[in-house]
Amino acid sequence: MHVFDLHCDTIARLYAGEHLDSLSGGHVSLDKLRRGGTLCQCFAVFVPWNPQGPQRPWMPDTPEAYFEGACAAWQRELERSAASLAPARTAAEVLENQAAGKVGGMLTVEDCVALNGHIARLDDWHQKGVRMAALTWNYENSLGWPNSPDPAAHGRGLKPFGMEAVARMNELGIAVDVSHLSEGGFWDVARLSRKPFAASHSCARALCDVPRNLTDAQLRAIGDAGGVVGVNYYARFLRPEAVGKGETTEIDDVLRHLRHMANVAGVEALALGSDYDGMDSRLAWGDAGGQQALAESLERVFTPAQAEQICWKNALRFFRDVIGA
Ligand SMILES: [Zn+2]
Questions:
Q1: 147 C-alpha vs ligand 1 centroid, how far in Å?
Q2: Residue 132 to residues 22, 253, 315: CA-CA distances in angstroms?
Q3: Could you tell me if 216 and 264 are in contact, meaning their C-beta atoms sit under 8 angstroms apart?
Q4: In sequence order, what are the beta bridge partners of 86?
Q5: What range defines the domain where residue 188 resides?
Q6: In the chain, how many H helices and how many E strands?
Q7: pLDDT confidence bin for 242, thresholds 50/70/90
Q8: Looking at residue 230, which CATH number applies to its domain?
Q9: Cα(134) to centroid of ligand 1, in Å?
């Protein structure tokens, strides 16, 4: 079964000088994606910028400089592995890559901190191949505020620049990603976005009550808008009792959330958003190379046609709707 995965953090390793064709020890490498049946993997540029400082020793002086470096690293990988990896910039291109026997890689962003109030930068991002962007990570930026355990903080909506960015992303064909965003910001996106929007890597709050997860009302709103939710494989978002580091995520944990999300948002809204290389959980299926075990297990809960929707068809439809091609 094909897999279209909405989020991984592997670009951080590429920025550090490693290469996709020789990565070891993490969840993702070119070989693992191939063995795991990956049709398309979203690769997020996550900008590890701490506005409260201090920055990590290897961090450039500005988030913009890191962003540029990470995009350059991604471009280098596309050239280096051109025989087996290809950019996915439209839904049609995802299928063309597959027909050519190549794994598709879609460039995405986690935290729009590098926009820093400059709307025209979105045009440059689009030019670089960015097709989805999470408005915030876990810090305030020029667009808005992140999720928070404090209800007042969680209720804060988008800033005026965040609203402007949503409108421009709609125009350009960059999907708005609400994972990590405050709930107030979420409802602003739901109200303002003229295109379907995504939560690239989030789970159901009804089953695991952490502010990074989505309430039933939020899940329903994503489904109503024609959007998708990529279920996150992080044990702490799946099981309330999984509070320690190195907990193992079982296939049943993921199935439980998918079943709930299907009941609330509709099966058309479900997708996979692993968070590979972005978490300290161990996965029962190992890494991307073993993900067919998870894909096949979906048929324990869903029909074969629904399992295909969840593994790749919904994500493909979503990007076709957002990008228009
Ligand atoms: Zn994340």
A1: 11
A2: 26, 26, 12
A3: yes
A4: 104
A5: 3-323
A6: 14, 11
A7: confident
A8: 3.20.20.140
A9: 9
